[in-house]
Design goal:
Layout lengths: L1 E3 L6 E5 L2 E4 L3 E2 L6 E2 L6 H5 L13 H9 L14 E9 L6 E8 L15 E7 L4 E2 L17 E3 L4 E6 L10 E6 L3 E5 L9 E2 L1 E2 L10 E6 L4 E5 L19 E6 L4 E9 L9 E11 L2 E11 L1 H6 L5 E10 L5 E3 L18 E4 L4 E3 L2 E9 L11 E8 L4 E5 L4 E5 L2 E2 L5 E17 L17 E9 L15 E9 L1 E8 L1
Parallel strand pairs: 5-9, 15-19
Antiparallel strand pairs: 1-34, 2-29, 3-28, 4-27, 6-7, 7-8, 8-10, 11-12, 12-13, 13-14, 16-17, 17-18, 18-19, 20-21, 21-22, 22-23, 24-26, 25-26, 26-27, 28-34, 29-33, 30-33, 31-32, 31-33, 31-34
Length: 489
């Protein structure tokens, strides 16, 4: 298992080092291109839009479009256009990346109550994570044709997981469709079962913003994050409603219970800050959360709407998925403008995917604020070197990072570090914090260069099997280098 140096509870001592937070770097050619376009609009626009068998079409909007000589798909007066990337997973069958995203507005569908139009859940594939193809799924008939990449209609937010815990191959893929939520199963992530309604037992109420994490080994349950109305069951009905994050568990992915509020804004966030949703994934020895911070505007909230505000993503972390921690800086991890809180609206996909030594983060963003219509959201990509969320940096003078004690698993030690301008070495400490003779810092070969996996070696030892089962600590010595993570293998 990888050990990320994010949680300071796992760090016993530091000296002459500083912690640095890193954010993914936006892909320079954003927004992403789906084939020759951003979504499947050309396939749909060429179909017979007037057919009576499409009862969800907003006939008034279509008639207005024709009268004004506008292409109904591109009519900005009807609804905004969206491309909401919800999930990207790697197929265990083909190795290709599979994207599940939502669009609305283009078909001018009757508003289903979710801010301007009915959403449909769509599917795309890619080999490199940048250029995407949209295969015909032949599942949903629109404008007289099933030649489209629509997976579910309607279907707002298609969160999809590949469930390694599942023993039934026909349920390897699980789709968690918000709102509802509704559940579907698949063997390949392309052909799906019919949607089934999921059930949540709660005394906290339900809002929107449902997301799913997946199977949790620690609790032996499936975990999802349902946004509650109340923080506690006995909250006064006069208490102002604010967006917050709740957590629930399930044995079968259909019936959810143990719903409780786990994450709310605090005084440091300010009176108009809320959490719109949180996307949680397991990475190494931690749960990481992409918490969407919603910054409302006092004047607009009072006079116009609680929907109006900026949204950006903050990285948070947890050891159990229940108690969450935030960095003191609370800087944006993903935002419309890198590092800027109060600009536009940014919402992330469920989790990153690994690609060529990097983590690919997908998100959709708009320069307009949340709730402002019409708005155009487009799909974006940002990349982070593997495991490099947080680093500990030493400059000219040598410093060190010492881990908290743990039981040695044996094997080889691999270190993720950037030592292009300097070097690092590591000592293995006994319970009394003395260096083990064969694994002392003085006998460690210097590690140099920028590598995701430096192999830690000592003059007469390359493995730690002799220490397996003992309580040890690691003490990393750095000069002009940055340390990110380590693992045993």
């Amino acid at each position: 298992m990888k050990h990320l140096l994010i949680d300071e509870a796992n760090i016993a001592k530091t000296f002459r080092v500083r912690r640095q937070l890193h954010r993914p770097i936006p892909y320079p050619n954003n927004p992403l291109v789906f084939g020759a376009e951003y979504c499947d609009r050309e396939k749909l626009a060429k179909s017979n839009i007037r057919e009576k068998e499409t009862p969800h079409l907003d006939q008034h909007a279509l008639a207005t479009s024709y009268e004004e000589g506008l292409d109904p798909w591109f009519n900005p007066c009807a609804f905004g256009r969206f491309a909401e990337v919800c999930s990207v997973v790697r197929s265990p069958l083909t190795g290709r990346l599979q994207m599940y995203y939502a669009i609305n507005g283009g078909m001018n569908l009757v508003d289903s109550g979710w801010t301007g139009g009915t959403f449909v859940a769509c599917y795309a594939e890619s080999d490199n994570g940048v250029h995407w193809e949209m295969p015909d799924l032949n599942r949903v008939k629109v404008f007289g044709s099933t030649k489209n990449n629509i997976m579910f209609a309607p279907g707002l937010m298609p969160y999809v997981i590949v469930d390694e815990h599942e023993s039934d191959p026909n349920r390897r893929y699980k789709a968690f469709i918000h709102p509802g939520p509704k559940i579907a199963w698949s063997a390949d992530g392309i052909q799906w079962s019919d949607l089934q309604k999921a059930y949540l037992e709660t005394d906290l109420g339900r809002s929107d913003g449902d997301t799913v994490c997946g199977w949790d080994e620690a609790s032996q349950k499936y975990v999802a994050y349902f946004r509650p109305w109340k923080e506690f069951p006995n909250d006064s009905p006069d208490k102002p409603l604010k967006r917050k994050i709740g957590r629930a568990e399930s044995d079968d992915f259909l019936h959810w219970k143990n719903h409780r509020c786990i994450f709310t804004a605090d005084e440091k966030d300010g009176p108009w800050a809320e959490f719109e949703r949180m996307l949680v994934f397991r990475h190494g020895d931690l749960y990481l959360g992409m918490a969407v911070v919603f910054l409302g505007f006092e004047e607009e909230r009072v006079a116009i709407s609680h929907m109006l505000g900026c949204a950006y993503v903050e990285l948070v972390y947890s050891r159990d998925g229940v108690k969450w921690h935030r960095f003191e800086e609370r800087d944006p991890f993903l935002s419309c403008k890198p590092g800027v809180r109060d600009a536009g609206c940014t919402l992330p996909a469920a989790r990153p995917v690994e690609m060529d030594g990097q983590l690919f983060f997908y998100y959709f963003t708009s320069s307009k604020i949340h709730g402002e219509m019409p708005a155009t959201f487009s799909a974006h990509l940002a990349r982070l070197p593997m495991d490099r969320f947080v680093g500990w940096r030493a400059d000219e003078e040598e410093g060190f990072v010492q881990t908290a004690p743990f039981i040695c698993p044996g094997g080889q030690l691999w270190v993720n570090a950037d030592a292009r301008s300097g070097h690092l070495r590591v000592a293995v400490l006994a319970e009394d914090e003395r260096h083990h003779v064969e694994h002392a810092a003085a006998r460690c070969l210097y590690m140099q260069g920028d590598q995701m996996e430096h192999h830690a070696r000592w003059q007469r030892a390359e493995r730690l099997d002799a220490l397996k089962g003992r309580t040890i600590s690691l003490k990393f010595y750095l000069r002009q280098a940055e340390l990110f993570a380590y693992r045993f293998a």
